[in-house]
């Protein structure tokens, strides 16, 4: 029939694009603004993930005098961050599945604001510790969910987006270390005012996430592919199709196999376990094994944005996984006979089964590496300014030295993740960072005041093991749910490992009366960090090791 023939000859790209635009008012414009708002939220959130810690480090001596803390209690205070990260970080994926990752991060920013506003005026050490724990609870859940959100929304730019997030995190860390003492002096010399002012930055970070609370658009990364939770249409919903049940939407029949349209890219990106494709399709137009990300391409070519080139090794690994384990055969169909873009019979969406993450050696290596680098980072943030002050450096200069250490992460946190995604093995980067750390500790032991600026720079380079660890979390798993599990496991286990470090430094400092033994401890911990990090950098994935 003429009508049927016309419909058959209608380009699938036009048909699916039109259907997508009809389903989502605003179309491309809405998606662009959603992405911009999400990037703003990620940057502002990252800026708030360390000021609660480094602002305290800059004023630790004043806080100790004001609250009557001993060196051991101060060591306990510097151990509270990893303790809270371990306890509350493990809850983040479950909260994200229930409420959406965007809503959880928004609540986390609100908790940071409340904790920072309350703790200077809580009255006494117990209240100070409790308010600090409230702020750190918000930091903990955001720490875990940031790599998940990056993987979910920017699957082809994991390295660059992780670099942007890590760069903002380092900037916030350095800013708090550098300006807390001068601002405290400007506000009359009250350490309460100097600590409480950072609540304002956390309030600003709440605002970009509010639309995602209503729509839960950024909230499904940890819940598994194919789920879009929430009934209201929010800015985070992409590629909606027919409704199949409360809180779930799948693509309708308008999108067929082999379509390289943008609707396919946005709609199928998070259904890797369902179709074996995710955000890439394999249609007959490109030939077996080729991938399309947009309009139809010639055989053997791949259409991708230039900025995605830095993450090509990860995309290749993900595509191989989807072809072999995601259920796709070489003819573009899944093993159960379905074509890409069609939902499984009798179900709206298939949730990815949980990995047995503790069976993965790579997961354990990442967890230990994360724990050891966190130990070094929190010892540095909590005690380095005090080391310089005890060596005769003025308080304001000691704060600037800590800021220099933190600010080194601004450029390097952007460069290192992009470099890591280009390498098949991230071990050499781990070793280079470790050597810088050993040199910095040696300088602190031999001449802390004479070469203070050089030691601050070297320790700042060594602290960039954190963005490297986050990048490896995104590279050692292929799917959004896999990254969520690995991120929660590595960070929670790692922060548990790091709890004794800052506390032990405080105890050694109090009982030895100097910094020789604490610095020797820090140097000794750098050796296993380098060894375990080298193992974690191997080109392996937890899906291969843990099984389903």
Question: Explain this structure to me?
Answer:
The chain crosses the membrane at residues 37-60, 72-92, 99-122, 128-150, 162-183, 195-213, 363-385, 397-416, 428-447, 453-474, 486-509, 515-536. Keywords: Membrane, Transmembrane, Transmembrane helix. Residues 237-246, 309-321 have a biased composition (Basic and acidic residues). This is MFS transporter. The protein is an all-alpha fold. The chain has helices at 2-9, 12-23, 27-47, 51-58, 60-67, 71-89, 92-99, 101-118, 125-153, 158-186, 191-196, 199-206, 210-215, 262-268, 272-275, 312-324, 361-390, 395-407, 409-422, 427-446, 452-462, 465-475, 480-498, 500-512, 516-536, 542-546; strands at residues 243-245, 248-249. It has a two-stranded antiparallel ribbon. A hairpin with a 2-residue loop joins strand 1 and strand 2 (248-249). Helix 10 packs antiparallel against helix 19 (409-422), helix 18 packs parallel to helix 21 and helix 22 packs antiparallel against helix 23 (480-498). The chain is globular, with a radius of gyration of 25 Å. The two termini are 48 Å apart. Residues 1-26, 219-315 and 317-351 have low confidence and may be disordered.
């Amino acid at each position: 029939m003429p009508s049927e023939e016309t419909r058959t000859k209608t380009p699938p790209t036009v048909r699916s694009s039109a259907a997508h635009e009809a389903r989502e008012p605003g179309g491309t414009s809405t998606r662009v603004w959603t992405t911009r708002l999400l990037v703003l939220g990620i940057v502002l959130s990252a800026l708030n993930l360390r000021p609660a810690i480094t602002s305290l480090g800059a004023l630790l001596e004043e806080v100790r005098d004001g609250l009557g803390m001993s060196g051991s209690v101060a060591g306990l205070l510097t151990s509270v961050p990893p303790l809270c990260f371990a306890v509350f970080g493990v809850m983040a994926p479950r909260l994200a599945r229930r409420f959406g990752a965007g809503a959880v991060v928004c609540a986390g920013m609100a908790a940071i604001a409340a904790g920072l506003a309350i703790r200077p005026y809580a009255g006494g050490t117990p209240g100070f510790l409790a308010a600090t724990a409230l702020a750190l609870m918000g930091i903990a859940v955001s720490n875990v969910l940031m790599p998940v959100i990056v993987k979910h929304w920017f699957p082809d730019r994991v390295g660059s987006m992780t670099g942007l997030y890590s760069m903002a995190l380092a900037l916030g860390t350095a800013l708090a270390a550098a300006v807390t003492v001068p601002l405290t002096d400007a506000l009359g010399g009250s350490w309460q005012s100097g600590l409480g002012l950072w609540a304002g930055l956390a309030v600003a970070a709440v605002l970009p996430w509010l639309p995602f609370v209503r729509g839960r658009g950024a909230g499904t990364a940890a819940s598994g592919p194919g789920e879009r939770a929430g009934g209201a249409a929010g800015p985070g919903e992409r590629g909606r199709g027919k409704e199949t049940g409360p809180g779930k939407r799948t693509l309708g029949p308008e999108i067929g196999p082999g379509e390289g349209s943008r609707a396919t890219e946005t709609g199928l990106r998070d259904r890797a376990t369902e179709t074996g494709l995710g955000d890439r399709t394999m249609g007959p137009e490109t030939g077996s094994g080729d991938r399309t990300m947009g309009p139809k391409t010639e055989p053997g070519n791949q259409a991708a944005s230039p900025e995605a080139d830095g993450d090509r090794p990860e995309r290749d690994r993900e595509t191989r996984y989807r072809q072999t384990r995601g259920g796709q055969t070489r003819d573009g169909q899944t093993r159960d006979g379905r074509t890409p873009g069609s939902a499984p019979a009798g179900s709206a969406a298939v949730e990815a089964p949980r990995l047995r993450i503790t069976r993965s050696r790579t997961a354990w290596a990442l967890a230990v590496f994360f724990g050891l680098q966190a130990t070094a980072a929190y010892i540095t943030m909590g005690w380095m300014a005090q080391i310089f002050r005890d060596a005769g450096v003025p308080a304001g200069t000691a704060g600037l030295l800590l800021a220099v250490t933190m600010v080194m992460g601004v450029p390097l946190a952007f460069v290192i993740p992009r470099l890591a995604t280009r390498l098949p093995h991230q071990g050499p980067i781990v070793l280079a960072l470790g050597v810088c750390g050993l040199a910095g500790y040696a300088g602190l032991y031999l001449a802390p005041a004479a070469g203070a600026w050089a030691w601050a720079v070297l320790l700042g380079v060594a602290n960039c093991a954190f963005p490297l660890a986050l990048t490896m979390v995104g590279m050692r798993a292929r799917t959004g749910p896999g990254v969520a599990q690995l991120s929660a496991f590595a960070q929670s286990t790692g922060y548990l490992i790091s709890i004794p470090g800052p506390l032990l430094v405080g105890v050694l400092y109090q009982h030895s009366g100097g910094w020789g033994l604490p610095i020797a401890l820090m140097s000794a911990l750098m050796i296993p960090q380098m060894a375990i990090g080298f193992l974690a950098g191997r080109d392996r994935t937890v899906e291969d090791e843990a099984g389903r």
